[in-house]
Amino acid sequence: MNQKTSFSSSILYRAVTMLVLACGMLLMPLFTACVNEEQYEDTPIGNFETLWRIIDERYCFLDYKQHEIGLDWQQVYNKYRVRVSNDMKRDQLFEVLAEMLGELRDGHVNLSAAHDVARNWSWYENYPTNFSDSLLRRYMGTTYKIAAGLKYRILDDNIGYIRYDSFTNGIGDGNLDEALMHMMLCQGIIIDIRSNGGGNLTNAELLASRFCNEKALVGYIQHKTGSGHSDFSPMEPVYIEPSAGLRWNKPVCVLTNRHVYSAANEFTAYMRAMPNVKIVGDHTGGGAGMPYSDLLPNGWVVRFSAVPTYDADKHSIEFGMDPDYNVQLTDEGFKRGEDDIIEFARKLLKQ
Question: Which of 15, 80, 106, 332 is deepest in the core (most CB within 10 A)?
């Protein structure tokens, strides 16, 4: 398949990638493409060369990450090529290729083989979780309602609380109508997406559409147009259309932490562009590249970020976003049985 053809149709590409924007979920080989410029044999050297070239020609953040973290993909080639020989074993090759991909610092990049999956989780490792299941149970109790992927209830100060832990869990218009109707008399709503690693972008768009009354510009997207690191289409605006169902016009707080990634990161960008919405908690994990997959000669599957997305101000959100209010969980709050982030949002909504 021709490289330029693979990336020329923005409509088709967005329709496919919206279905697979999930952290930790691999695309099936059905969606793979080929690199025709040069074919390599199924040898350790051939597989190395294929993988390096796929990233070189099709990964969408090479220029951005060179600017942000000093990544030089040619130097990465020089560093790892000397470690590869055709007499090395399978596990040795996998280790080298995994380490090379780790230089990208991208949670959407992984290498899948029958025996293992190489992945990068630096977007949340070594950071506070700022989320506690034990504390959440105190707020949710046992009588909360469930509407498909949503769990929700009204807190004792008349603040609505919605927990959405993964955008892989589907929701429908009927579910959202019921949840918002239940909270109609609430002073405000908390939407807690902490530790939401992503999922189906359609679910993120559907939920966001309940918080605007007119077409809202929420970001931008580009598409690869060639093999060069800077070969991209012009930025195309991304809009959220207001839902035809019930919409919420009162204040909203969206709760985030470092585990908010991929489609959940996009949802945060959408909501930040909405009126009456504040982001509370920790910096998000990022993941602003819609993923695509390709095959190495030995059948291993590499997934990589192929389509860059941006917020409404045209800033990359690959490395995440700062909240409007940076709030951390504390030991003191835990001892009191209080989630500091939820408590801050409750006070903010009552002001």
Answer: 106
Q: What is the DSSP string of 18-86?
A: HTT-BTT-PPPGGGEE---S----SSHHHHHHHHHHHHHHH-TTHHHHHHHH---HHHHHHHHHTT--T
Residue 179: which of 193, 166, 167, 191 has the closest Cα?
Answer: 191
The C-alpha atoms of residue 170 and residue 153 are separated, in whole angstroms, by: 19
The β-bridge partners of 293 are 32, 303
Distance CA 82, CA 45 (A): 10
Q: Are strands 252-256 and 277-281 parallel, antiparallel or unpaired?
A: parallel
Using CB atoms within 10 Å of the CB of residue 309, give its burial: 0 to 12 exposed, 13 to 18 middle, 19+ buried.
buried
**C-alpha 256, offset from chain centre:** 12
* Three-state SS annotation for 91-106: HHHHHHHHHHHHCCCC
Rounded CA-CA distance 44/52 in Å is 12
DSSP structural state of residue 224: B
Query: What are the start-end ranges of the E strands in the chain?
Result: 32-33, 110-112, 117-118, 145-147, 150-154, 159-163, 188-192, 216-221, 236-240, 252-256, 277-281, 289-295, 301-310, 325-326
Say what percent of the chain tops pLDDT 90.
88
C-alpha angle with apex 46: 117 to 78, nearest 5 degrees?
Answer: 85
Tens-place pLDDT, residues 204-242: 999 999 999 999 999 999 999 999 999 999 999 999 999
**The amino acid at 289:** G
**Bridge-partner residues for 152, per DSSP?**
145, 162
pLDDT attached to residue 306: 97
Q: How far apart are CA 195 and CA 166, in angstroms?
A: 8
Alpha carbon distance 23, 107 (integer Å)? 7
Q: pLDDT digit string (tens) for 299-347?
A: 999 999 999 999 999 999 999 999 999 999 999 999 999 999 999 999 9
CA distance readout (Å), 291 to 215, 280, 305: 27, 27, 4
Three-state SS at 107: coil
96, amino acid identity: V
Please check whether residue 280 is in contact with residue 323, taking contact to mean a CB–CB distance below 8 angstroms. yes
